[in-house]
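Thought: the user wants the 3D structure for the chain below. I'll pass the sequence to the structure tool as-is, report back what it returns, then summarize two notable features.
Action: structure_tool
Action Input:
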Amino acid sequence: MPTLHRTIVRPLITEASSVAYQDRGEYHFEVHPDANKLEIRQAIQTLFGVKVTGVWTSNHRGKDKRMGKSVGRKPHWKRAIVKLADGDKIEIFEG
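Observation:
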């Protein structure tokens, strides 16, 4: 089981996540692959001091990458989409 600070790996700030934030108030994070929805909810609420109303997760498979004659692999990772209560904001995404 990952610790609180290892549950949330990093925020994902892309064009698609910016549109989701502005339209629906959803925040995207890369999370530990073994983290479940309850752990993600508790980590977000504790780290940022907000009320989470919904969590959606998706697993992403690592891609194969060729480097000359050998084949490498990027790691698998997990995304969490978090919906906050009305009026709550996370300042990381406000930049």
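Final Answer: Structure generated. The mean pLDDT is 90. Helices lie at 4-7, 15-24, 37-48.
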